[in-house]
């Protein structure tokens, strides 16, 4: 019986300390079955020459909103980068409307009126390019939108007349007719009438999102929050959408999904020492699934963001009395996080501010004191932390999941929000490793780019978009960043079948244009992922 493929002549970094380098990988049925000359080429049905390319295990983005990435590619891209002026924007909408099925809504995303002569598009302007379709444009802030006349009509406001102005929102009008713009809560007047997302649509988002991620060298992404469209996720049947994509072979790479905490509920009065268990029906929990699609931790947001000054902080924001806020009451979080822990879930909590970090560590500590077990609980972002807090994370066995790319994209804004005197606590990474606390690498895409090379550059060089070094003592080495992107993420995802190139592991790996371990740090961003393999098959190649 012939085995599948032998990849030869590679500059292969295995990430296995007992055997760090190799020159050949044998693959059969999606798994690595040999390294170097362990098996002769004659037993393989195919031998592929890697021509000296540098090979790494595939990147695992431990916090990456895969369906949101897919959704972006299904909406009309009207960001200034794609539609730099009004005529480009209207051309893009016209083209999408002509290609849409009869009656289908056309959604554009990311416009910025500052690139459109300072004016938001109007309903009348959109009507001219809509071909009868309802059209809705989302502003890049996501706090505003513009609808055309058909969209108003389908929402119960023919000719854009009689539109109420809800509390917390606004609908600019002329002569009793809405001009098209909807602010804040008024957006719901239209958005509530856009047909709800179906599992089939989610499957298409997964297909598109996974294709985009495979092209960046990401071979596993963990989707942090599904199934709770009121909070995060696309629809209550998000997992069905993922399964449709998986069953029909439309996933280019692997996914681990995090059901949002509000989808868990007490089950049949089950309790432990007076604490209700929180879980899904049938007792479904972390770990179910296969190598393509797996249920990961349950996810919850505890606070907001630094830029929005809504993360929960120990000290007030700069020039302010505000210390931000928690998204849920302490009691709400405590009961559900402990209940999920007791029901066997790993738990991932978004905590950006240092006060949120304290609260969540308290709850995790209490959960482990009620029922000690080797859970892989994690805290997403950990964007503000001092050394004592990092020591406590280590002591509690909690994995931090920071985002390097926040440094270039959000670093300046974050340090402005928190104030220069406390900015040294922001976006730490080196501090985790100094206390021997392994972290997982992630991007939180599409908040920022999902590109692993950019993320590695950010973790190593720590320059903001202004070119300023940001907390340079938090820099890490290239090998530490790559370790986080492979083994660190595998640990946080509670999987052991990926992260190193070794016998028995999933055959997920990437080829790079240069040896990332040899390139000077200043030139990391010149490196390209040239090819991505998942399950031993090439799912993306730069030449395609
Ligand atoms: Zn988050
Ligand atoms: Zn996120």
TrEMBL record:
The keyword NAD does not apply. The keyword Electron transport does not apply. InterPro entries: Amidohydro_3, Metal-dep_hydrolase_composite, Metal_Hydrolase, YtcJ-like. Pfam families: Amidohydro_3. Keywords: Hydrolase. One of its GO terms (molecular function) is hydrolase activity, acting on carbon-nitrogen (but not peptide) bonds. Coiled coil: none annotated. This is Amidohydrolase family protein. It comes from Corynebacterium poyangense.
